[in-house]
Amino acid sequence: MYCTIDDLDVGSMMVQAGIAKDYTRYSGGYYRVEQAKAKKEKRGLWKEQWLLDEKKEKK
């Protein structure tokens, strides 16, 4: 299920901006490329170190 407005994928735009995450459990990794780019460029929530540390703790 994807949310589009005038053929624009709103979910993709949100993940690219770093204001949403790609939850692969639900998306099947559909937004993984957008999320990787947002992380690399430290956009939005990816600016925050605590979120990156949280992921390390789960491993």
UniProtKB/TrEMBL annotation:
One Pfam family matching this protein: SNase
Any stretches that span the bilayer, and where are they? Answer: none
Q: Which residues form the TNase-like domain?
A: 7-48
InterPro entries linked: SNase_OB-fold_sf, Staphylococal_nuclease_OB-fold
Q: Could you tell me what this protein is called?
A: TNase-like domain-containing protein
Record the organism: Micavibrio aeruginosavorus (strain ARL-13)
